[in-house]
Structure formats: structure tokens, C-alpha cells
Amino acid sequence: MNILVCISCVPDTTSKINFKEGNSSFDSEGVQFVINPNDEFGLTRAIWLQQKSGAKVTVVTVGDESCDPILRKCLAIGADQALRVNIQAKDGFQVASVLSTICKDKNYDLIITGRESIDYNGGMVGGILATLCEMPYLANCIHLEIDGNKVDLQREIDGGKESLKASLPVIIGAQKGLVEEKDLIIPNMRGIMQARQKPLEVISPNEIKPATEILTFKKPDEKGPVKLVDSDNIDELIKLLENEAKVL
Amino acid sequence: MKILAFIESQDGDVKKTGLEIASYSRAIADAKGYELVGVGFNINNTRILESFGVDKFYNIETKEDNFFNVESYSDSISQLIEKEKASIIVVSSSADGRYLGPILSVKVNSAYISNVVGLPTKYDPIQVKCSCFTNKAYNENKSLKDRVILSLSSNSFGLKEQNKTCEYLKGTYISSTKSLKVTEVDRLKGEVTIADADIVVSGGRGLKGPENWNLIEDLADVLGAATACSKPVSDMGWRPHSEHVGQTGKPVASNLYIAVGVSGAIQHLAGINSSKVKVVINNDPEAPFFKAADYGIVGDAFEIVPKLTEKLKARKL
10 Å Cβ neighbour count for A204? Predict the structure, then answer.
């Protein structure tokens, strides 16, 4: 079985977000980049399939050479090989489109994306990629079991979950629940050493235009100080919520 | 020109988010002089839509079952988009809306913009304000295509009534041939979900254990609120991860968010940033949450929360 895991390099969740060049681009100065958490849940699930049934796991990212350390980390976690599509994509549509050209060439049985990246939160790459490749897509995937060609899946929905069946090939949008936080694989020294020898191929894609363009960024307005209410005066809190905030 | 709104329903009733999508789309229709066409599946109370500005509504009966089938739904909607020649399509930010939008965008050759938090600031081409970096920032996003699908963040526009004479029509259901099929839906009955809730009550590690969650549930009950939790609480298995609010969990955009015993890690605060009013109850005056909250009480949650619940109950009577 061939598995492709799509990886996005994103600012660490604790990052303070700043912009530069007249608020037209993200300021990566001093920002630590990590594997997008949703993608990491998906990668872990892929490695389990590799360990159980000998699946071959390829990771791919769309970006410049600054993403290479993240791909090496994926290899250290256990992926067999890495691809990097060497463009600075402008939007999720462009990312999905260049990935689709790779997926159409190679016959992957399972393609894993994250539910969304935690930077632009677009949540569109998996769905667009799947539709371009004419494959079924399951968003918010919290369960995946493969038996031969048959797949059992679950999707997290508002207020519950949904169970589904499909047959390979299929694309999923991974999130927490597919594996748990404690299951994430921390690379050991052996993995890190092996990762240096594993193939990391750089691909130059055909030009594909984006569908959207971000013009400017803005940080939320500073909010006023908190109004503290004495713990003996709960009536005051209720009054404030009722009359001032008008939310009761 | 036309704008098409995907109106979501649950067990035959239009969801609140469906009415918000109609209200938002009406505002665009008014700004541009467009006709507002709605589409939904298996809806019984369609008449409510004429009070929210819908000019024409296609109700599609799915026949086979009531499950949300993303391929069949997107095929059925895309056929209507082409038939009506709609240039703007609006979907919600629910799990289903965000699932459908990107797939639909390929089928109707449109741009897709998610996390939209306001009306377009420009038209032809459309430009809208969106949240990004999990609410740590906003951006102005411009469509580079003639047709665009907007996914509106829940509770960012609100409900606005406007009476119209609505033409009710039947749409055609197109059954997908793709292999993915829903077999079962397991949804908590009668409980408010985080996505739909006006009020969310959330608990953190300060509650000391899952056995104390009645504090959160009782307060949520009296407020008609949804319950949520912080990441450590879901990681430790005290609460299901569907309740986890934050950067890797769910975003919350409620009118009122009450956090009990949540310290307020940056990832959690990002997730709740779109909530309009935030209240924190925590015994640590240094908890970062106090910097992000509108109202706060420093003190023991085990004493304060039951009192608050009692007083709210008394107020209701």
C-alpha cells in the first residue's frame, strides 16, 4: 500500500503572530516552525499502517527550502521518503492543485491531509485535492481502519460523529482523535540518523495560478482591561452580564 | 445576477446557522441588487425562509436516507448554481459547511474563501475580511475568479429578518457514485452543540477531575449553554475531544463564553477569541485568562459556580 501524507509547515501554536511590509506578509522572524498538528496526527496514523502492514509512506510539502527541516523530522518519525514541491503557494487552491498533479501520476491508495493548517485555517486542501483527483474525501477524520480494499471511517460532526464505509483509494483530513496526543511519535536518535539517508526529492511544478489573494493582515484590536467582580458579589456579575454586556 | 445560499437543517428544521447564512446573503443581495436563491435538503419548515429575505428556495428531497452525503449534496447544489448562474455562493462554517465548500468550489470552478467574518468590503472582484492564525489575526482576502464560495464564520453576522415573497420549488437530488457512504450518525440528542450555542460554559484543569463536571453541566443547563473544555482536560480523557476548544480543537464564537478553572493558554485564547463576551472564574489572579476576559471573578470555582447557578435559576423563575 502506498500512502501520501501532505505536510504543512506552520508557526508553533505558542507563536506570537506579527506582520511586516505594511502588514502585507507574515513576519517569520523568531518564529519556530513545526509540523502542522493535524498533519502530525495523520502522519502518526500512516506510520502505524507502515508498521502493521508494510505500507510505504511518502510525505510531501509545498514550499521553499526552509521546509526541509520539517520534512527531515517527518522522515525521522518514520516516513520512507519525502517530496518538496518548490513553490511559495499563495493559497490552498494552489497547494491542492500542485499536489493533484503528483497524485495523478502516482497511484496512492491513501492520501492524508490535515483537517486544516493552523496558520490560514483554510480547511480546503483535502477537499479540493480529492475533487481534482476524482477521489472521495472525508473531512475531520477521527477513525480509520483498513481491511484489504475496505475502509471504515468516522467523521467528527457538530455534536457527535458519523460512521462511514469506503473503498480505497480515499483521501482524509486528519485531526486529533485519529490518534491521540500521547500517541505522537518523538523521533529517536536512530530515526534521526536514518532520516539523513532517506530520499528528499525537490520537484518544480508547472505554473498553477491561485484562486485568491491575501491583500493585508491585521491584528485584533487591543481589548480593555477585565472588570473584576468580588467573589461575594455574584449578583453584580449577573447584573453586568444582563445590563451592560446584554448577553443574558 | 444571483447569490445562492446553502441552508442547513437538522431533522427537517432549519438550523440557526441556516438563518444567519440567509441574513448575510440577503445583505449582499441588497447591496448588489441580486436575487437570493436558497437551497436545502429535506426541510419541513421552509416558510421561515421568506422572513429572512430568501426570494426563491429549492428544497431537495434525498429519498434514500437523511445522511449528509457530501458528494451527492455538492453535485445537487452545483447543478442549481449552474442553472441559476449564481456568482456568489454562501455556506456556513459548520462541520458540514466547511466539508462541502471546497469540494463544491472545484465542481463549479470558483474561488473558495473560508473564515469570513464580515460583508464584502469590495465587489467585482469580491474582497472580504477573514480570520486567520486561529483568530490571532485577520486578513483581507480577494477572489481571483468570477465566481466565489464564501464560508461565513458562525455568529459573525447574526440574524436579520426581512420579509420577501418567496417562490418555493423542488430541486433534483443527484445520487453520487463515489464509494464513500455514511452508515450511521451518532449525535447527542437534545444537547446544544458548541457550534450552535449562544452561550458556552467551559471547564479546565482547575476542576480537579471529571467527577466535578456537574458544576459545569448544571451551570450550562440553566443557561441553555453548550459545554466545552480545555486541551489538557480532553488529553487526560476527562471529557471527549469533541469538547476541546482551542487552536487544535474547536473554535468558539458564542455571545457569552464562561471559563471555569481554565488558565488561558495562548492556544485556548485563540480558539475563543471570536466570542463576544468572556467571563473567567479562576482562583489564580495571575492566570493569563484575566487579560483576555471582559469580566472576571478571582476565587474558588467550587464555591462560586454553584452559587452562580442557583442565582441564575432563581432569576429565571
Answer: 8
Burial class from Cβ neighbours inside 10 Å (0-12, 13-18, 19+) for residue B11 reads exposed
Residues from chain A that touch B106, judged by Cβ atoms under 8 A, are: 127-128, 131-132
For residue A160, which residues of chain B lie inside 8 Å, CB to CB? 185-188, 242
Choose among B123, B131, B122, B126: nearest CA to B154: B131
How do the domains of chain B map onto residue ranges?
A: 2-171, 199-316
Q: From CA B209, how far away is CA B237, in angstroms rounded? A: 10
| Distance from C-alpha of A76 to C-alpha of A184, rounded to nearest angstrom | 13
CATH class for the domain made up of B199-316? alpha beta
Amino acid sitting at position B21: I
ipTM of the complex: 0.96
Single out the residue of A125, A118, A116, A96 nearest to residue A26, CA to CA. A118
In DSSP terms, B148 is beta-bridged to: B88, B111
The reply to whether B2-171 and B199-316 are identical in fold is yes
Q: Do A131 and B115 touch (CB under 8 A)?
A: no
Q: What is the pLDDT along chain B (317 residues), one digit of tens a residue?
A: 999 999 999 999 999 999 999 999 999 999 999 999 999 999 999 999 999 999 999 999 997 788 999 999 999 999 999 999 999 999 999 999 999 999 999 999 999 999 999 999 999 999 999 999 999 999 999 999 999 999 999 999 999 999 999 999 999 999 988 889 999 999 877 778 898 899 999 999 999 999 999 999 999 999 999 999 999 999 999 998 889 999 889 999 999 999 999 999 999 999 999 999 999 999 999 999 999 999 999 999 999 999 999 999 998 87
For A2-219, CATH number out of 3.40.50.300, 3.40.50.2000, 3.30.465.10, 3.40.50.620 equals: 3.40.50.620
Tell me how many degrees the CA angle B78-B46-B42 measures, rounded to the nearest 5.
55
| CATH class for the domain made up of B2-171 | alpha beta
User: Which of A:119-178 have CB within 8 Å of B?
Assistant: 119-128, 130-132, 136-140, 153, 155-167, 170, 175-177
